[in-house]
Specification:
binds guanosine-5'-diphosphate, alpha/beta, globular, 2 domains, 15 helices, Adenylosuccinate Synthetase, Chain A, domain 1, binds 6-O-phosphoryl inosine monophosphate, 433 residues
């Protein structure tokens, strides 16, 4: 039962899609287990670029079944567009995609409820991707949610639309009269139900059977540990458990069936948006240089990502809360030109030194990073395919990064294309755990 969980170690956009694609060649099943269209996972194969929001990044492999697990929230127009785009590019999506009947649906009113609001005085603004993620998970936990399986029962679906719109009426600027909108949504969902029916299944049974038959199953996380609703920089997080435990609750696979857990981290750090804590933020000029070289603009929103140094305090937190076997480090090539590189090994706050990632974002905001500084290598690393191929300064940087993070590094990625990687632990490719 070789099962592998891939999550993000930082604040998202670490290259999970790229690494999932790399490790999907021998996977029978690739499963997404949380999040929704807030994710933007980029895969580049032979110069072709794919940006996936809902469909697992294993979809580029023609013989891999891709599962949208019960822990996800699905925006249907985004899903249908993604299916059509991939079909147009010749991928057999109809054969390979399966959607959980327990996954929750992001309803049109969820998107409206996720529009930016002015914060109450004294509060900081919560920025979101405006994909309806928070309202969908709010309804799931409040037990008011609509599940994919509900869509296949027209009477139940009509009742849920009516009740929900009635309840939320006051808080949404409805695009039309309430009764009219109910009728429009009932019609729209009847059509969408016909389109989605062929993909819907009890995916918990499907995945568990595959595991029992000894098939290779890869679980692809979205977002990252710093955005986890419990372990991230709450409240500046997303609304799901992005950490490894989410792979169990988001699919119905028990923890005893997980064999390997790896987290993807960039060789530096990024975070989308302006207002949330980010202790290792780089000074302006340097930040801009790294942003341009790393093309750090959101795959979903196009927003510039803020850039900082690698934060080993956050990495150690990720190693702990995900129970990591190893780290996958991406984008080492982005640091190629820099004369010096730094890793944050602890935080200083007043006269205190913090080794552990704090729960309190106000405290985190006041933390100053304690850095270790290394000479840069100022040589191209993109062609390296073994550790020995890397310049000595890059090897030293990677060794210290692993030491400070408290986990070995199993893959180093040095470019965005499928094969631009150094495989330090080949068992990840063959699922020979
Ligand atoms: P995800 O959300 O974790 O899947 O990551 P994104 O796709 O949002 O962002 C990662 C970006 O970095 C994408 O544009 C990838 O093509 C790119 N990328 C991934 N690994 C590497 C790498 O090793 N080097 C470079 N230069 N780019 C990379
Ligand atoms: P992938 O899977 C980076 C960020 C948003 C926002 C916060 C909450 O591509 O790594 P939400 O819409 O989830 O309620 O937004 O989380 N965010 C991400 N940042 N990568 C992502 O996904 C993200 N998904 C959400 O920018 O700050
Ligand atoms: Mg992304």
């Amino acid at each position: 039962m070789p099962t592998l969980v891939i999550v993000g170690a930082q604040w998202g956009d670490e290259g999970k899609g790229r690494i999932t694609d790399l490790l999907s060649r021998n996977a029978h099943l690739v499963v997404r287990f949380q999040g929704g269209a807030n994710a933007g996972h980029t895969v580049v194969v032979e110069g072709e670029k794919y940006i996936l929001h809902l469909i697992p990044s294993g979809i580029i492999h023609a013989d891999t079944t891709c599962v949208i697990g019960n822990g996800m929230v699905l925006d249907l127009p985004t899903l249908f567009k993604e299916i059509e785009d991939l079909k147009e590019r010749g991928l057999p999506v109809e054969k390979n995609l399966v959607i959980s009947d327990r996954a929750h649906v992001t309803m049109p009113y969820h998107r409206l409820l996720d529009m930016p609001k002015e914060p109450r005085s004294g509060q900081r603004k919560l920025v979101t991707t405006q994909r309806g993620i928070r309202p969908t998970y709010v309804d799931k936990v409040a037990r008011l949610g609509v599940r994919v399986g509900d869509m296949l029962c027209p009477d139940l679906m009509a009742e849920k639309i009516r009740t929900n719109l009635h309840e939320k009426g006051g808080s949404i600027e409805s695009p039309q009269e309430a009764d009219e909108w109910v009728d429009v949504l009932i019609c729209e969902f009847a059509e969408w139900a016909d389109r989605i029916r062929r993909y819907v299944a009890n995916t918990t049974v499907l995945i568990n059977r595959a595991i029992d038959e000894g098939k290779n199953v890869l679980f692809e996380g979205a977002q990252g540990t710093g955005l986890d609703v419990d372990f991230g920089t709450y409240p500046f997080v997303t609304s799901s458990n992005t950490t490894a435990g989410g792979a169990c609750t988001g699919t119905g696979v028990g923890p005893s069936k997980i064999d390997r857990v790896v987290a993807v981290a960039k060789a530096y750090a990024t975070r989308v948006g302006d207002e949330r804590p980010f202790p290792t933020l780089m000074p302006d000029g340097l930040e801009q240089q790294v942003r341009e070289k790393g093309n750090e603009y959101g795959a979903t929103t196009g927003r510039p990502r803020r850039c900082g140094w690698y934060d080993a305090v956050l990495a150690r937190h990720a190693v702990m809360v995900n129970g990591l076997h190893s780290l996958v480090v991406t984008k080492l090539d982005v640091l190629d030109d820099l004369p010096t590189v730094k890793v944050c090994r602890a935080y200083r706050c007043g006269d205190q030194t913090l080794e552990d990632f704090p729960a309190d974002v106000e405290l985190l905001d006041k933390c100053e990073p304690v850095y270790e500084e290394f000479p840069g290598w100022q040589t191209t690393t993109s062609n390296a395919r073994s550790f020995e191929d890397l310049p000595e300064a890059a090897r030293r940087y990677m060794n210290r990064l692993a030491e400070l993070s408290g986990a070995p590094v199993s893959i180093i990625s040095v470019g965005q294309s499928r094969n631009d990687a150094i495989m330090l632990d080949p068992s990840l490719e063959t699922y020979a755990f």
